[in-house]
Amino acid sequence: MNRLVLACATLALAIPATQVLAAHTQDPKPQRPEGRPEGRGPGGQEGEGRQRQPSALKGHMEALEEGVEKLGAALEAEDAATKIEDLLKAVCELEKVSIDAKSEMPRSMGRLEEKDKGKALVSYRTQMQGLTNALFEVELQLLAKDVKKAKKALGALEQIEQKGHSEFKPRRGEGRGR
């Protein structure tokens, strides 16, 4: 079991420098073959028949949502106490995804005035850290083989999700909500 904890911690902390550098050196406005930037507006840019590419953050969030749902179902199963190792592996995967998601920036922040972006980014990352901490708590309870407390810790994620989505996931046609 100690090897699993060490491996989980090592994986969670081992973000290759190349990924970090690549994320910060990419051109924010990819160029189309004709040399025009992608986006909305005239000139054949994003419009009818074209859909926006899903963001990396959306993929991370969908993976978290699906993973938390599956983990919750697994914790509710009668045999959950006999599958602690499998549950720990699942939690470690969710921890890694949450750390990856924390390094992204919600699209809704792109619409903010420059003076508001810093505060919004701190709020987003703080909330994502809270999500990661809640997952760490689930892991700690599973390490203690306390499925009941692990379920309770997992329940805290719902509140974190609701708060984060109300602030950073605006409804279609709206700006950033509060």
Structure, described:
With about 180 residues, this protein is mainly alpha-helical. It has 6 helices and no strands.
Write the layout of secondary structure elements.
Elements: H1 2-13, H2 17-25, H3 56-76, H4 84-102, H5 114-143, H6 147-168
Helix pairs in contact: 1-4, 3-4, 3-6, 4-5, 5-6
As residue ranges, the low-confidence spans are 4-33, 41-47, 174-178
Q: Strand count, sense and closure of the main sheet? A: none
Summed over residues and divided by their number, the pLDDT gives a mean of 75
The backbone outline, from C-alpha atoms, is elongated
The helicity comes to: 55-70%
What is the N-to-C order of secondary-structure elements (H for helix, E for strand)?
A: HHHHHH
Number of E-state strands: 0
Distance between the termini: 42 Å
Q: Strand percentage, roughly?
A: under 5%
Structural class: mainly alpha
Gyration radius over CA? 19 Å
Count, helices: 6
Summarize the structure.
This protein has 178 residues and is mostly helical. Helices cover 63% and strands 0% of the residues.
Notable characteristics:
elongated; mainly alpha; disordered C terminus; 6 helices; 178 residues
